[in-house]
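Case study.
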Amino acid sequence: MTDFRQDKAIYLQMADRICDGILSGEYRPGDRIPSVRELAVFLGVNANTVVKSYELLSRQGIIQTRRGMGYYVTEDAMAKILDDHRTRFLEETLPEVFRQMQLLGIPAETLTEKREEWLRSLRTD
Amino acid sequence: MTDFRQDKAIYLQMADRICDGILSGEYRPGDRIPSVRELAVFLGVNANTVVKSYELLSRQGIIQTRRGMGYYVTEDAMAKILDDHRTRFLEETLPEVFRQMQLLGIPAETLTEKREEWLRSLRTD
Amino acid sequence: MTDFRQDKAIYLQMADRICDGILSGEYRPGDRIPSVRELAVFLGVNANTVVKSYELLSRQGIIQTRRGMGYYVTEDAMAKILDDHRTRFLEETLPEVFRQMQLLGIPAETLTEKREEWLRSLRTD
Amino acid sequence: MTDFRQDKAIYLQMADRICDGILSGEYRPGDRIPSVRELAVFLGVNANTVVKSYELLSRQGIIQTRRGMGYYVTEDAMAKILDDHRTRFLEETLPEVFRQMQLLGIPAETLTEKREEWLRSLRTD
DNA sequence: GTGGTCTAGACCACA
DNA sequence: GTGGTCTAGACCACA
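After joint prediction, the assembly is written out as follows.
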C-alpha cells in the first residue's frame, strides 16, 4: 500500500488527493479520472475503498459518473472544493482554534493584533 | 516499531507523548522517566532517537538529567509545556489560520463574529 | 432474506422502510433505531448493507449516530423526509410523467382538466 | 422460474412482456406467439398462468386465438397497446400524481410551470 | 471494459 | 456492546 497516514481513513485521504489534483490543474473539468479498479491496483487498496472515495466526491458534485464509462471531473469542481474548504474552516478549524485559545488563556484581542501583524509581515515580504 | 505517524519525525512524536504524560498527571514533577535504553527497547526505536527526544525536552526545561541516574521531570514542567503550546499556537497555528483565511477570501470580521458566536454557544451548553 | 424487491437496491429499500416507520410514528424523534448488527440479523442481510442504508439516512439528517451507542431519529426527521419526497417528486416523478405524455400524445390541457376532475371527485367522496 | 418481480402478479408481468415485444417489433401483426405450453416450460411457470395472461391480451384485442393453431398478434395490436397505456396513464398514473401533490402540498400551478420548463429543456438538448 | 451492490469476515476506537 | 473502515471476492447492468 502506498503512503497513507494512519490517523485518517484511507478513502478520505484518497478524496483529498483527487481534490488536490483538481486544484493544481492536474485534472481539469471534463477530464476522466482513473477507473475504480485502476486506482485500486495502483494504490494497492481494495476497490471498495476507491468506490467509497468516489461516492463521496460524487455527492459533493466534484466528480460525476457516466454509466459504463467512468468518473469525470465536473465543470464547477473547483468552486465546489473551495466551498467545501470554507465550510470546514468555519465549522472545524475555527472552533478548534477558539478552544485552544480558551485552554491557553489567550485573550480575544491577541487574535486581531496577530492578524494585523501577519498582514504587515506579508506586505514587507 | 510501535505506531508512529509517517509525517512527523519520531523523536518529535516521542517528545509530544512525554508532554502528554506530564499534562495528564502520569508523570509528575520529580518523577523519573524511563531510561533511554529502556524506552528504545520498549518502543523498538534506535537509542539515538530517544536521546534526541530527551535532549529536546531538556533544552525546553521540561526534563533534566541527573548524571548516572536518569532523566527527571522538572518542577515547572507543566508551565513550560503550556508556554510551549502557547508559542506554537501563536507562531504556527495562527499564521496557518490567517493563510487559509486569505486563500478562502474570508474577511477579518468573520473571525471576531465567529469567536463571539462560539462563546455564546459555550454558555448555552 | 426477508421480502426485498429485485428491482431496487436493498439498502435503498431499507432506508425507505425506516422513513415509513418515522412517518407512521413507529419511530419518533429521539428514538433509537435497531443497531446495525441487530437489523442485519433480523432481516438476513449483511451488516455492511445496513451500514450503507444508515449512512444514507445520516447524510439526509434523518438519523444521527452517537458513538458507541447507536443511531437515533433526529428532531426534524419528518420535515427532512417530506422535503426529500418533494424533491424526488419534482425531479423524478414529474419529468417521467411529462415524458409519458409526450410518447402517448396527451396534450397539456388534459393535465389541468384531469386535475380539476380529480379534485371534484375528492369533494363528493 | 425466470426473473419475475414479487410485487406484481406473474400473468400481468408476462402480458407486459408480450406487449413490450410487440412495441419493439419483435412480434409483428400476424405473427404467431409461443404456445401456452412452450412458454410455460420455457419460463418455468404453470400453464394456467400463461393461459390467464393470453386471455387478458385476447380480451384487449392485442392477440387472437385461431382454434388448434395458437395465438396470433392482431393487426391493430400496437394501437390497442398504446390505447391501453393511455388509459392506464389517465386512470392510474395521474390520480397517483395528484394524490402525491396533495400530500406534499404542491400547488396546481407548479404542474404547468414544470411542464413548460421541461419542454424548454427538451428544446435546448 | 465501466460502475453499483452485496456478502463474509476482520480489526479498530469509543462507551 | 456500538458504529467505522477495510479487504477479498462475487455478480449485475450498461457500453
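Observations recorded in class. Chain C has two domains: 10-76, 78-124. DSSP finds five helices and two strands in chain C. We will return to this complex in the next lecture.
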